[in-house]
Design a protein that fits this description.
This protein is of the alpha+beta class and about 160 residues long. Helices cover about 30% and strands about 15% of the residues. It has 5 helices and 5 strands, in the order ββαβββαααα. Helix 2 packs across helix 5. Bound molecules: FE2/S2 (inorganic) cluster (2 copies). One FE2/S2 (inorganic) cluster binds next to loops. The site of one FE2/S2 (inorganic) cluster has 10 residues, from loops.
C-alpha cells in the first residue's frame, strides 16, 4: 500500500507517496537520496541510522513512515552549510573521532540531540547518551572528548543547534 507522507526534512517541506512498509530510514535513503544516514543492523542495535525527529534522537530503522506525518526531521545533511561544518562536526574532525566514518552521522546526530537538551553534559551523561551508538574503530574516547569540546564551544554561541 502507498501512503502520502507530509514532513519537513532539514527545514524543507516534503510531500511524497511512499510504500507503507517503508521505515524512516528507507524513506530518507531510498526516496530522498539522503544517504548520510547509514543502514547498519536495521533492528535498533547499532545507532548508525540515528536522526532527530521532533527534537528527539531516534533509530530511523525502527520508525515507520506512517508515524512521521507532520514531523520535523533532521539528518546529518542538514547540519553543515556547504563547507561550513557544524561545530559538532568540526570537533569530531579535530579530535580524530572519525575513522571509517560509518558510525559518524548517527553519533553526530545523537550529539546534537544531547546538547539540545543538556548543554553542559558530564562525561557520564555523554557516555550514557551515546550508549546505543556503536563504533568499531575509535574506542569511543575521541568521540566523548569531541562531544565535550563541542558542548564547551556551543555554550558561548547563542544560536539554535539546528537551523
Ligand atoms: S540501522 Fe538502525 S539501529 Fe542499526
Ligand atoms: S569510525 Fe568506524 S565504526 Fe566508528
Amino acid at each position: 500500500m502507498i501512503g502520502l507522507v507530509d514532513v519537513r526534512v532539514n527545514g524543507v517541506r516534503i510531500r511524497r507517496h511512499v510504500p507503507g512498509h517503508f521505515t524512516l530510514l528507507r524513506f530518507l535513503r531510498e526516496s530522498e537520496g539522503l544517504t548520510g544516514t547509514k543502514c547498519g543492523c536495521e533492528i535498533g542495535e547499532c545507532g548508525a541510522c540515528t536522526v532527530i525527529m521532533d527534537g528527539v534522537a531516534v533509530n530511523s530503522c525502527l520508525v515507520l513512515t506512517a508515524e512521521i506525518d507532520g514531523s520535523e526531521i533532521w539528518t546529518v545533511e542538514g547540519l553543515s552549510h556547504g563547507f561550513d561544518l557544524h561545530p559538532i562536526q568540526e570537533a569530531f574532525l579535530e579530535y580524530d573521532a572519525v575513522h571509517c566514518g560509518f558510525c559518524t552521522p548517527g553519533l553526530v546526530m545523537a550529539a546534537v540531540a544531547l546538547l539540545n537538551e543538556t548543554p553542559d553534559p558530564s562525561e557520564d551523561e555523554i557516555k550514557n547518551f551515546i550508549a546505543g551508538n556503536l563504533c568499531r574503530c575509535t574506542g569511543y574516547l575521541p568521540i566523548i572528548k569531541a562531544i565535550a569540546e563541542a558542548a564547551y564551544r556551543l555554550r558561548d554561541v547563542p544560536r539554535p543547534l539546528l537551523a
